[in-house]
Amino acid sequence: MGNRDLFDIASKVLPGGVNSPVRAFKAVGGDPLVLVRGEGPKVWDADGREYIDFLASWGPLILGHAHPKVLEAVREALDRGLSFGLTNPYEVEIAKLVVEGVPSVDMVRFVNSGTEATMSAVRLARGVTGRRYVLKFEGCYHGHYDSLLVSAGSGVATFGIPGTPGIPEEIASMTLVVPFNNEEAVKEAFSRYGEDIACVIVEPVAGNMGVVTPKEGFLGFLREITREYGSLLIFDEVITCFRVSFGGAQELYGLDPDITCMGKIVGGGLPVGAYGGRSDIMTRVAPEGPVYQAGTLSGNPVAMAAGMATLKVLKEEQPYGLLDSRTEDLARGVSEILSERGVPHTVNRVGSMMTVFFTDVEVVDFETAKTSNTDTFSRFFRSLLRKGVLIPPSQFEAWFVSTAHTDQVIEEALHRIEEAVRDL
Ligand SMILES: *Cc1c(COP(=O)(O)O)cnc(C)c1O
User: Fold this and answer.
1) Cβ neighbours around 37 below 10 Å, total
2) Catalytic annotation on 236?
3) What per-residue confidence (pLDDT) applies to 424?
4) Res 157: pLDDT
5) Are 187 and 222 in contact (CB under 8 A)?
6) pLDDT, position 282
């Protein structure tokens, strides 16, 4: 069966035909894809068409699709059984890799998704401080946990839903939302609610309103003001950990959050999340401490094997310089192509994550991200797709470059993008 037939059936048995909203292509129009295979930097759809893939499963696949070492580790784990429900050696080994690699993390707890990681991190922060409020930033996405699904960027922004039905006002009212990169707004929130703020949660490099870089000093300011008021600082590094450097944005910028949330790359393509931090905080988690959090399949051996193999390759190869220069080539190339055609744009990039905004305004927060012309984005997306380049089907997302995107692949992608833009 081809894309259309499969998606027709999907639409009858899955809400919107999907298991996660942005996959339905509602923001860009046209028929959604059903993908059947991936290898290295490429994917194939159910009609047999090939695409150079910058969606990369929304971030986990920093080594590209079906990396041989990851597959080998998964096969080895598979042969020993799928789940035990007690501690297995893979959990121990990957935990060591995380603790050694991520500067502020002394201990880590594995869960099954990024959402679970942020949810558990916020509970821990509330449990440790005995306070109720969470401060987050407009346009930052931390998964679909009730307390954090307020002004939450991509999925929500894409559909223009103000928050979502199903979250009681009482819960939403315990979340304070201020603009990203805005120190004054943070100061004001702290001067009003400071004694009751359990934590500040932030994507240290925002990726879910499109890529937005922290202004110089902004993250350091968050570190200081949270210390001053006795609140905890949570870095949501679900995208950035092992992406912008092995130790995440905290290593890149030299910062020291209290709790770090991980996901995506840490599972190597299987469903894994994690949260970790200093021992004095993590020992408050059950069973060592009183803050309850559990999971039947948490630390699943097959998932841990995929994550462990991914982290091992990254640690050994340290591909971050290479990823940085290739993504810079891609960003510069796309910018030149759009400039030649006189299309207003701004490209934001940190390491191997980037977003092309269709605006000539500097994008520093969600307000400025929204100045992007989403009609132009939709046409750009569909035109790229016709030429065999897959990017995320929403303006407010990041493109991801993997180690499988060689110089040649980037060159080929730019060639296809140039043809696509000619037809725009
Ligand atoms: C993807 C993402 C999440 C949620 O992770 P899921 O595995 O989709 O639940 C949380 N925070 C950030 C920054 C993310 O990009």
Assistant:
1) 13
2) yes
3) 85
4) 47
5) no
6) 98
**Residue 154 beta carbon below 6 angstroms from any ligand 1 atom:** no
Please state whether the predicted TM-score (pTM) of the whole model is above 0.90: yes
In a domain, 24, yes or no: no
Q: Tell me what pLDDT residue 274 has.
A: 99
Q: Which domain holds residue 208?
A: 68-317
Instruction: Output the CA 402–ligand 1 centroid distance in Å.
Output: 18
* Residue 154: per-residue pLDDT: 57
323 domain residue, yes or no = no
Q: Which residue from 60, 107, 9 is spatially nearest to 353, judged by alpha carbons?
A: 60
Q: Is 406 inside a domain boundary?
A: no
Compute, in angstroms, the gap from residue 231 CA to the centroid of ligand 1: 23
Query: 42 an active-site residue?
Result: no
Distance 114 CA to ligand 1 centre (A): 4
Longest dimension (CA), the chain: 60
- According to the model, what pLDDT value does residue 149 have? 87
Domain harbouring 256, CATH code: 3.40.640.10
* Helices 320-340 & 407-422 angle (0-180, nearest 10): 20
SS (H, E, C) 317-334: HCCHHHHHHHHHHHHHHH
Q: How many helices (H) and strands (E) does the chain have?
A: 15, 14
Q: What residues in the chain have per-residue pLDDT under 50?
A: 157-162
Residue 157 domain-assigned (yes or no): yes
Determine contact, residues 28/378, Cβ cutoff 8 Å: yes
- Regarding the beta carbon of 118 and ligand 1, being less than 6 Å apart is answered yes
Q: Which two tokens stand for residue 271?
A: 């469903």
The catalytic position among 133, 141, 275, 320 is 141
Residue 350 φ/ψ, nearest 5 degrees = -135, 120
**pLDDT at position 360:** 95
Phi/psi at 137 (5° precision): -110, 140
Please tell me the predicted confidence (pLDDT) of residue 155: 57
pLDDT of residue 153: 62
Please tell me if the CB atom of residue 203 comes closer than 6 angstroms to any atom of ligand 1. Answer: yes
Q: Please work out whether the CB of residue 142 comes within 6 Å of at least one atom of ligand 1.
A: yes
Query: Residue 254: its pLDDT value, please?
Result: 98
Total count of domains within the chain = 1
